[in-house]
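User: Show me a protein chain along with its predicted structure.
Assistant: Here is one chain, sequence first, then structure tokens.
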Amino acid sequence: MTRPDVRPARLPLGQIAAHLVLLLLAVLFLFPFYVMLVTSFRSPSELFTPEFHLLPQQFTGLKYYIESLTTSPVLTFMKNGVIIAAGILVVQVLTAIPCAYALAKFEFRGRNLLFAVVIFALTVPIQVPALPLYLGLNALGLLDTYFAAMAPFFLSVFAIFLFRQSFKSYPDEIIQAARLDGLSEWAILWRIVVPGSIPAIAAFAVFSVTSHWNDLYWPLIVIRSNELMTPPLGLATFADVESGENYGALMATATILTAPLMVAFLLAQRQFVRGVTMTGVK
């Protein structure tokens, strides 16, 4: 009995080209992170030489990381980033979910107009209401507080839009059956609809945490004390203190402040991709 001739499957030329393009883009996007990481282990004499080496010629070990942790309150910056980003995310989810559910599943006069307002609000950057918000917080004596850093972002129109798209794809038959069983709208929302929309919530969480962890503009306006500085603001202050000369310590600090965000994204990557794709499926 002869064995059949088994040949390895060949990928189509178009698929190979697509993979090459994606690989090239991945290298381009990851290269700055690679330079940041490698620079944190280079000696100062290597930074301004005309030759570029992929690996440090003189490995400095953890010198700059120890210097970063001992000369600047990096852990305090990280704690503030976690408090502010998590606080904003919790309030955004609690306020956006009911609004999105009403726009997706309730029939009422003016619903389309309200959704148009949500779409329009997506085009308004934080710089537009920044001055009125600053004046209002100053009049209330709330500057240089966690609340001042979080308050302008408590209502997210992007979250309302994203959750609405997800809720619209949820079967109306299940909601009607729950109503016939006597469940209230709040119970239907939080016990049935929300658990089925976890990927969309996870996707928004990645967007929200990344945005507010990396935000420099608003904390720079309302935060003054070192005890409340966020990671980007603390890094900017650290760079100013060092006069921009100790690049190894700066890159080590940037690596420490970036690492939690990258780990969180990798952990939520699957839910993030599912959430983004599900919002476009009806």
